[in-house]
Amino acid sequence: MEAIFRRFFEFDSWLGADPVGAGNINDTYLASFVVAGRRQSYILQRLNHRVFTDPEAVMLNIRTVAQHLSKQPGFPLRIPAPALALDGRLLQRDEAGNFWRVFPYFADTYAPEHLPEAAVAYAAAQAYGSFLDALCSCPPENIRETIPGFHDTDRRWAGFQAVLEQDPAGRVKTAQAAIERMYAAKPVFDAISALKRAGALPSRITHNDTKAGNVLLDLHTGRAVAVIDWDTIMPGTVLSDFGDMVRTFAPTGPEDDPAAPQLRLEVLESLCRGFLGKTVGFLTATERVNLPLGAQWIIGEQALRFLTDFLAGDVYYKIKYPEHNLVRAQNQLALLGAVNRHMPVLQEWVHTGINPNTR
Ligand code: GN1
Ligand code: MG
User: Is residue 302 in contact with ligand 1, taking CB distance under 6 Å?
Assistant: First the structure.
């Protein structure tokens, strides 16, 4: 790792690199070195090029967004612009063919990787809201679709059916109950597809991985400092960013908890308020009214992705034990059930979310 780092910076001594974060895809380290007697720290990250097959396009997107945000007067967050290596490039390739990049390290911040309490949910949802708002003026045509069909649920459904038919890992039998519940969620996917086909959802630049842990908070004040993990920034619909917040902020347990999650309603309410407070200015009526559908969609889609990966033999997500992806899928299906039961209250908060006097 030191050798890679030396392609980005000239320094006197290397202090080492420690893993940080809890991502399922990339490998992230906090690396430090000494230059002219001063310690400096940066984030060093290996980009998973099996998932991001066009690393250069990912970095171009990140650069376009960083440049756009840096020109927005009043944008309230810091911008994790990638560092240029000594050869002027944003990516460096090691002997094993891995791609590495470096980001600034924001001292005195933390990523709330655990399930956020209401105040954290509020701050993080505001941060994502501000991020989306500031990107409204950046033409989506300037952003590449780095993972084609990332939220194309029809395509993901077809992929699911293909593994069901082929059963390459011999796991269809074990997953029968989850498969049946997956079919029960199909109407949600159809509703989203219909909205997309009708052109009812404006194309916007979205983040596509809006978990609380991708917002850095100030250690002392708890205020949002930066939105990070920009790899999945792509053209899409805000429904998915809202949905992924509900999916990751509001449950009572992590996405791989074998116990069925419940919804923490005070967290859900805070997230609606924080998000709508920053987005009502640009959301269309159709977008706003369909935010709760976005939650059903993204939770269902995540269940579909985990289940498909289980059936395919664990080819995408990192796993810690053989049933891990099935447990994740069951968890997400249970979460979808909880959201389905709370649709009326979620609808209400989405409609009144900016009124501080509600409830
Ligand atoms: C992946 O590794 P992480 O947490 O950044 C995935 C997301 C999933 C998430 C589920 C590029 O994100 O889409 O929602 O796992 N990222 C990609 O834990 O597939
Ligand atoms: Mg991510």
Answer: yes
Of the ligands numbered here, which is closest to the C-alpha atom of 149?
A: 1
How far is ligand 2, taken at its centre, from the CA of residue 320, in Å?
18
pTM, two decimals, is 0.94
Q: Are 151 and 301 in contact (CB under 8 A)?
A: yes
Closest residue by CA, ligand 1 atom 15:
24
Q: Does 281 fall in a domain?
A: yes
Contact 231, 47 (CB under 8 A): yes
pLDDT reading at 18 higher than 50: yes
Indicate the number of domains in the chain.
2
Same domain, 142 and 244: yes
Q: What is the pLDDT of residues 290-341, one digit of tens each?
A: 999 999 999 999 999 999 999 999 999 989 999 999 999 999 999 999 999 9
Domain final position from 105, 133, 164: 105
Flag whether 110 is in a domain: no
Write out the two tokens for 218: 């100030």
Q: Residue 92's beta-bridge partner residues? A: 100
Q: Which domain holds residue 260?
A: 118-353
Residues 146 and 57 grouped into a single domain: no
Q: Which atom of ligand 1 is nearest to the CA of 25?
A: 2
The two tokens of residue 117 are 């309490």
